[in-house]
Design a protein that fits this description.
Layout: H1 2-5, E1 29-30, E2 37-38, E3 46-50, H2 51-56, H3 62-66, E4 72-78, E5 83-88, E6 96-100, E7 103-104, E8 124-131, H4 135-138, E9 145-151, E10 158-166, E11 170-180, E12 184-195, E13 204-217, E14 220-234, E15 247-262, E16 267-283, E17 296-313, E18 316-331, E19 336-342, E20 350-369, E21 373-384, E22 388-399, E23 405-416, H5 420-424, E24 439-452, E25 455-467, E26 470-474, E27 482-485, E28 489-501, E29 507-519, E30 527-528, E31 535-548, E32 551-562, E33 565-566, E34 575-576, E35 580-591, E36 594-601, E37 609-611, E38 614-615, E39 620-628
Parallel strand pairs: 6-9
Antiparallel strand pairs: 1-2, 3-8, 4-5, 6-7, 8-9, 10-11, 10-39, 11-12, 12-13, 13-14, 14-15, 15-16, 16-17, 17-18, 18-20, 19-20, 20-21, 21-22, 22-23, 23-24, 24-25, 25-28, 26-27, 26-30, 28-29, 29-31, 31-32, 32-35, 33-34, 35-36, 36-39, 37-38
């Protein structure tokens, strides 16, 4: 079956939504490798979603934006980004690396928290989504793909204020203050969103605060950024179908200092220092007022230091560098036994367990372009205090047969270490496994890109061979699911999409994307909670229509067919996931500095599940206003 998939398809794939047909893709730089490279010449499948596209979409969160990207699976237990698991190319949430301006923010406790991002959506310039393993460039976390959130820069002085209300008691407020002069640019943004919930125990309250400060000088630029996010939410039957009073509170604090230094026209250095702390309080069955000791408390901390050097010569561009990363956790459930430490803000609760691991990476890469060819090859050597030394070699090759056309092929190795939850969590609903092995994959891809005559297009075929895949597995003879290495899984896929921008008329732009995945293994004698619950079919289409001057309509349609099943108890038969049809719309009116909009999410009021037992909200209407001064 896999061999039949690997024929070369000349079809179209939208790489990025732009505002004009005259856009030169050679000017759009993306970080598909260690060096930023033009989008058209990058030998990887990268989707770029720019700020104007984000603003027009009928979504309110980063997770909502990502749900419109090619071959990205956003699975939710709670709506509007409260808890969203994002995966790429049939992977799962622990296999996706998330970054802000190239700085890693993944949570080592669990990938459930990686999308707890403090950046308000109004502060985002664009989001880059790299499909496929990229450990050679970004290290162990980039197993199945990378999400890089790029913040806005060089903005005019001003203030943006937005307010929104909607069904189920939805209230959303936010503000972005922009300041700057010749050498300095900065912004401070905050947002708050809350809802009474669409069903029993689904209410939430989320706040974010973020600041970015950039100072340029003769030799480069300093960037200091950071923020915090906090949320409380009802978690009705999140992890077990019989418990409707589950509840969770999470909070994250992030700070990063970066320096780009130009030693000469040939030699440039980049330095990143970052620190992230994440707190998680999870209550399985409303124990907070009676049995507080049974509530889960976790605090993870990640310190990261990275230095990169880039040297340009007649022989191409050579890059290299090193990274140190420490991942640690304090918990009353995860890790090894320690002397008890009081949990701040809670009496009679103690962190009694902890764990820490160090990671060192050294990487080198060389890029060279000729008239019609380009090559990028390199390797990353990784030393982990828990799992030893691994190598991640890879090569990307491009061929440019004519202006606007690129044919490419890639071969890259990727690897992921298990999270602390996968290793140590032992409860009545899951058993961790400290003996888990890292999962490994060999990723190969063939693709074609085209840009011109109003089209932005690409088609790609990929094959991923995974060994020691990590999954949460329920077997009939076991009372509760367990974390396992479930041997080898091979997956192939096809990705197609197209975007066309019109020069004239009311219809401004149409977009289409489709991804098909096929694995050589199914749930046979066991239930997979993550690895084998991928989207076999994932189709999306949207259009932008100008109804009148200042009045615009954006509408999107998504069809998803998920593999796998879910089971209420061991005594009941598994239930297969049903196909999903979702329609979202935004009607927006802009007059000078005032913008009005009306959103409809799940317009058809479709009943569906992203995870078993947790039904997603039906039709959700809201309206808002944005004032820019």
């Amino acid at each position: 079956m896999f061999k039949k998939l690997f024929f070369f398809v000349l079809a179209t794939h939208a790489l990025v939504a732009q505002d004009s047909l005259s856009v030169d893709l050679s000017e759009i730089k993306v970080t598909g490798n260690i060096n930023s490279t033009s989008l058209l010449k990058t030998a990887r499948n990268i989707t770029v979603i720019d700020s104007k596209t984000i603003e027009a979409l009928p979504v309110k969160t980063i997770a909502g934006v990502l749900s419109q990207a090619l071959n990205v699976d956003v699975r939710s237990r709670s709506p509007l980004g409260v808890q969203s698991d994002v995966s790429i190319r049939g992977g799962h949430f622990d296999q996706t690396l998330v970054m802000i301006d190239g700085i890693k923010i993944n949570d080592p406790q669990t990938g459930h928290h990686s999308m707890n991002i403090p950046v308000p959506i109004e502060m985002i310039e664009r989001i880059e989504v790299l499909q496929g393993g990229a450990s050679r460039v970004y290290g162990p976390a980039a197993f199945s793909g990378v999400i890089n959130i790029i913040t806005k820069r060089n903005q005019e002085n001003g203030v943006d204020t937005e307010a929104q209300v909607g069904a189920f008691g939805l209230q959303s407020y936010g503000q972005n203050i922009r300041l700057g002069n010749k050498n300095y640019s900065g912004s401070l943004g905050w947002s708050k969103m809350k809802s009474d919930g669409y069903a029993y125990n689904t209410a939430f309250d989320r706040r974010t605060l973020y600041s970015i400060n950039r100072l340029s000088d003769k030799s480069g630029e300093w960037t200091l950024q950071g923020g915090l996010t906090a949320q409380e939410f009802g978690a009705s039957n999140f992890y077990h179908p019989a418990f409707f009073d589950q509840y969770e509170e999470t909070g994250a604090t992030f700070i990063a200092l970066s320096r780009i230094h130009n030693f000469s026209n040939k030699l440039t250095a980049t330095m990143n220092l970052s620190y992230r702390v994440h707190d998680d309080m999870y209550d399985f069955n409303n124990y907070r007022d009676t049995l507080i000791q049974r509530v889960n408390f976790h605090q993870s901390a990640v310190a990261d230091a990275e230095v990169k050097l880039r040297y340009r010569s007649d022989f191409g561009v050579t890059s290299g560098g090193l990274e140190f990363r420490n991942e640690a956790i304090k918990s009353n459930r995860l890790g090894d036994d320690i002397e008890p430490e009081a949990v701040k803000g809670f009496s009679r609760v103690y962190y009694s367990k902890a764990f820490s691991r160090d990671n060192y990476s050294v990487f080198i890469e060389h890029q060279k372009e000729w008239d019609r060819f380009g090559i990028s090859a390199g390797t990353l050597v990784n030393l982990n205090s828990q799992f030893g030394t691994e190598f991640y070699p890879g090569v990307d090759i491009s061929f440019y047969p004519a202006t606007g056309h690129t044919v490419y092929g890639t071969l890259n190795r990727s690897l992921r270490f298990p999270t602390f939850t996968e290793q140590y969590l032992n409860t009545s609903t899951v058993r961790g496994n400290p003996e888990l092995l890292p999962e490994k994959a060999l990723n190969s891809e063939l693709g074609y890109k085209y840009a011109g005559n109003g089209w932005l297009a690409n088609a790609s075929l990929f094959y991923k061979k995974t060994s020691d895949a990590i999954d949460k597995v329920k077997r009939p003879e076991k009372d509760v699911p367990e974390m396992e290495n479930i041997d080898d899984i091979n997956m192939a896929g096809l990705e197609l999409s197209a975007a066309y921008t019109f020069n004239e008329g009311a219809l401004k732009r149409v977009r289409f994307n489709y991804a098909y995945l096929k694995a050589d293994r199914k749930e046979d004698g066991f239930q997979s909670f993550y690895t084998l619950n991928f989207l076999r079919h994932n189709l999306g289409a949207s259009f932008d229509l100008q109804i009148a001057k200042g009045l615009n309509l954006t509408a999107s349609y998504n069809y998803q067919q998920r593999e796998g099943a879910y089971q209420a108890s061991k005594d009941e038969e598994p239930v297969s996931y049903m196909p999903v049809h979702l329609v979202n719309t935004r009607l927006a009116y802009q007059v000078k500095c005032v913008g009005l909009f009306v959103d409809a999410q799940n317009l058809l009021d479709y009943q569906y599940f992203d995870f078993g037992f947790v039904e997603q909200p039906g039709r959700w209407l809201s309206a808002g206003v944005k004032l820019s001064l």
